[in-house]
Specification:
By secondary structure, this protein is of the alpha/beta class. Helix content is about 35%, strand content about 15%. The chain has 14 helices and 15 strands. The strands form three sheets. The chain has a seven-stranded parallel beta sheet with strand order 3-2-1-6-7-8-9, sandwiched between helices. A six-stranded parallel beta sheet has the order 12-11-10-13-14-15, sandwiched between helices. A two-stranded antiparallel sheet has the order 4-5. Strand 11, helix 8 and strand 12 form a beta-alpha-beta unit. It starts with 7 loop residues before the first strand and ends in a 14-residue tail after the last helix. The mean pLDDT is about 90.
Length: about 400
């Protein structure tokens, strides 16, 4: 609404069909922006079933839209089995549009899916662009294998629509790590809008004592596809009784209940393994660990770098190759160790990899730079986009 005095408004969209990565990335950016600018508020549109399980800073809130789950075959289904997925998409589309129309954002940031789930944000993008909203597409530094991404985007004419609709594209990584659009035919209308901002640094909410790093953290992210990693870590402890470092295994909120119960039973007799179902403050868990075993999703990788933890990555290979591509590149740079899933399935080999991890130097020992400047870079870009808004003033107390 022109002419009124109000805080600068940022709307974020996180489709959230699988795991926690999109919501956690949006929340990290939102918290950084409101910390840097007291004249700014953020609203996150999220499809995550557990969006309310996280805490949010003042001036950050979320709108929950109906949840859609991505299956292993890359098809989608409604969280409510009694509602057809196409009906759910229509509800989501309507809620997104009317939220944007009512909120009147100065900036809209779309996470990863340029047109939203099944194109659900395209109408909103066109409406807000006509209203003068700055439209930003945020991409992980690794999207997927080029041949897979190319087929998906050509089917929906995505590349052309990105060039037509968006003002800016943020890549959440440095240019010398990985280009998310490598191997694709990228027109100048898209390439000219790309800005590599760096990785998004994370912080712990509490001070971790220097002598507190007495456990190995095993994390599966959301956990929906993390059962193989948990199985392999438990098998490693069973295969090698000399492996006595305490392992804290976080299953993730989306791990199927039957698998969850099986792991709890398997670990019950091992005094060196502790099972946790979910922790909304994974930053604190990673900050306090001696080392990390993970699948290597974007947020976990940022946390490994942020807290400078030796890490062993066992990437998933289906349905996307994102984790493998990231882990392979990070291993090339000497930042982490990588173990292919087929090797991790061998209990003794996994045990040996864990022992080697406990002796490994942290990422900072590598000559490769870690490039954790993403959040301050984003704050600077937001200030540039809104340089004519008197309401956007920096929070001096936060520097």
């Amino acid at each position: 609404m022109t002419g009124r005095s109000r805080k600068v408004r940022v709307l974020m969209y996180s489709h959230d069909t699988f795991g926690l990565g999109h919501l956690r990335r949006c929340r990290t950016i939102a918290h950084s922006l409101v910390q840097d600018y007291h004249g700014l508020q953020v609203l996150i549109i999220s499809g995550s079933t557990i969006a309310g399980a996280f805490d949010y800073r003042a001036r950050v809130d979320f709108v929950k839209i109906p949840s859609v789950i991505k299956l292993r075959n890359s098809e989608y289904t409604s969280m409510d089995k009694h509602i057809d997925v196409s009906e759910t998409i229509e509800m989501r589309k309507s809620m997104i549009f009317h939220t944007a129309k009512t909120f009147e954002p100065d900036i809209l940031i779309i996470d990863k899916e340029p047109l939203g789930l099944r194109g659900e944000v395209e109408d909103t993008l066109r409406f807000l662009r006509a209203r003068g909203t700055t439209l930003v597409l945020g991409l992980r530094e690794v999207m997927d294998a080029p041949h897979l991404l190319d087929v998906e985007w050509k089917r929906n004419d995505t590349m052309h629509k990105i060039g037509e609709l968006y003002h800016h594209i943020w890549v959440y990584g440095p240019p010398d790590f990985h280009d998310p659009l490598v191997g694709l035919d990228v027109p100048e209308s898209v390439r000219s809008k790309m800005e590599f901002v760096g990785f998004l640094q994370r912080k712990s909410s509490k001070t971790i004592p220097a002598d507190a790093s007495d456990y190995l953290l095993v994390t599966t992210g959301g956990g929906g596809d993390g059962s193989d990693l948990v199985r392999d870590v438990i098998a490693a402890y069973q295969a090698d009784p000399t492996l006595t470092m305490k392992a804290v295994i976080v299953l993730g909120p989306y791990m199927p209940n039957e698998q969850r119960m099986n792991f709890v039973q398997q670990a019950a007799d091992n005094p060196h393994i502790e099972i946790i179902e979910f922790d909304s403050r994974m930053e604190d868990r990673i900050a306090g660990a001696r080392a990390v075993v993970a699948m290597g999703g974007y947020n976990t990788y940022c946390e490994i770098l942020s807290f400078d933890k030796p890490a062993l990555i066992v990437p998933r290979m289906q349905p996307r190759l994102e984790q493998f591509i990231r882990a392979r590149r990070a291993a090339e740079l000497g930042l982490i160790s990588m173990l292919p899933p087929e090797e991790a399935a061998d209990g003794l080999r996994m045990a040996a990899a864990i022992k080697a991890l406990l002796k490994r130097d942290p990422p900072s020992a590598s000559p490769a730079a870690m490039h954790l400047e993403g959040l301050p870079t984003i704050s600077s870009l937001v200030a540039q986009y809104l340089s004519d808004r008197a309401e956007l003033s920096p929070n001096i107390a936060q520097g």
